[in-house]
TrEMBL record:
GO terms for molecular function: S-adenosylmethionine-dependent methyltransferase activity. The keyword Secreted does not apply. This is Class I SAM-dependent methyltransferase. It comes from Kaustia mangrovi. It comes from the Bacteria.
Length: 254
C-alpha cells in the first residue's frame, strides 16, 4: 500500500489492521469470484496487506506472490507461509511472469495510477488478466467531507483528509485502454460497510496522519469528526457504517 504525498505518510500496524480492518478481506468474495483463480497459474496479489486474502488465493492451488509496501504487513503475511515481497506498487519490477494480477482495497492508496497500471502491464504475460476492487468515485465521501470540515475549522491541513485516488469507471477504463488493456467489465458498487469496531477505530487505522497533526488534541478532534458523521453513518443503536463505493474491474492484456 503506497502512494505519493500525502498518502506516503500513512503507516500500518499488522496487529491494528487485523483487529479493526478484517472486513477488508472478509468482504472480498465477489472480486475473488471475478478472478476465479485456477490451480497452477501464477498470480500477483498487489497490496496484499497481512496476507489473509493471499492465503485464500493460494489455497485454490494457484502459485501466488504477494507484494506490499508495508514491512509490518509483509512480515505478518510471511508468517502465514506465503511468498511475500516488499515492493512499491508504483514501481513494480516484474517482467511478463504472471497469468493474473489481483488487487483488493489497495489501489486507491497509490496516487500515481499511470505508474501502477504500467507496472501491472509489465508483470503480466501476454493475454494475462487484471482483476481489482478498490475505492471508486464517491467512496467515503461523507467521511472525507467531515475531515475536511474539521481541518478547515481548526486550520489544519485539508489535504490529509482525503489523500486517495477514487476514479470514475470512465477515467479508469480510459487509463487501462491507454496501456493496452481490453476491459471486460467495470462498475461502481455502493456498499455500506458495517464497522464492528466503530468509526473511531476506522479513523485511527486509515487516517492516522490527519489526527497526528493535532498532537495532544487528536482525541478531541476525532470526537468532533465523529459528531459530524453520527447523523449520516450511525444508527439509533450505535452501529457505525462506512459509506464505501467500490470500483470493480476485469481487464485483459490485449
Amino acid at each position: 500500500m503506497t502512494g505519493a504525498s500525502p498518502a506516503d505518510w500513512q503507516s500500518w500496524s499488522a496487529e491494528q489492521y487485523g483487529t479493526h480492518a478484517r472486513f477488508v478481506a472478509d468482504l472480498a468474495g465477489e472480486i475473488v469470484s471475478w478472478l476465479a483463480p485456477r490451480p497452477g497459474e501464477r498470480i500477483l496479489d498487489l497490496g496484499c496487506g497481512d496476507g489473509a486474502l493471499t492465503e485464500q488465493l493460494a489455497a485454490t492451488g494457484a502459485e501466488v506472490v504477494g507484494v506490499d509496501a508495508s514491512e509490518d504487513l509483509a512480515r505478518a503475511a510471511r508468517a502465514r507461509g506465503l511468498d511475500i515481497r516488499v515492493r512499491d506498487g508504483e514501481a513494480l519490477d516484474f517482467e511478463a511472469e504472471f497469468d493474473a494480477v489481483f488487487s483488493n482495497a489497495a489501489l486507491h492508496w497509490m496516487t500515481r495510477p499511470e505508474k501502477v497500471v504500467a507496472g501491472i502491464r509489465r508483470a503480466l504475460k501476454p493475454g494475462g488478466r487484471f482483476v481489482a476492487e478498490f475505492g471508486g468515485h464517491g467512496n467515503v465521501a461523507a467521511i472525507a467531507t467531515a475531515l475536511r470540515a474539521t481541518a478547515r475549522t481548526r486550520g489544519g491541513d485539508q489535504g490529509l483528509a482525503s489523500p486517495w485516488y477514487f476514479p470514475s469507471t470512465e477515467d479508469y477504463g480510459t487509463l487501462l485502454g491507454e496501456h493496452g488493456f481490453s476491459v471486460r467489465r467495470i462498475g461502481l458498487y455502493p456498499r455500506q460497510t458495517p464497522l464492528k469496531s466503530g468509526m473511531a477505530a476506522w479513523l485511527a487505522v486509515f487516517r492516522e496522519p490527519f489526527f497526528a497533526q493535532y498532537g495532544e488534541e487528536r482525541t478531541v478532534v476525532a470526537a468532533e469528526v465523529e459528531d459530524l458523521l453520527r447523523p449520516a453513518l450511525c444508527d439509533a443503536h450505535g452501529n457505525w457504517m462506512a459509506d464505501y463505493v467500490r470500483l470493480r474491474v476485469e481487464a485483459v492484456l490485449a
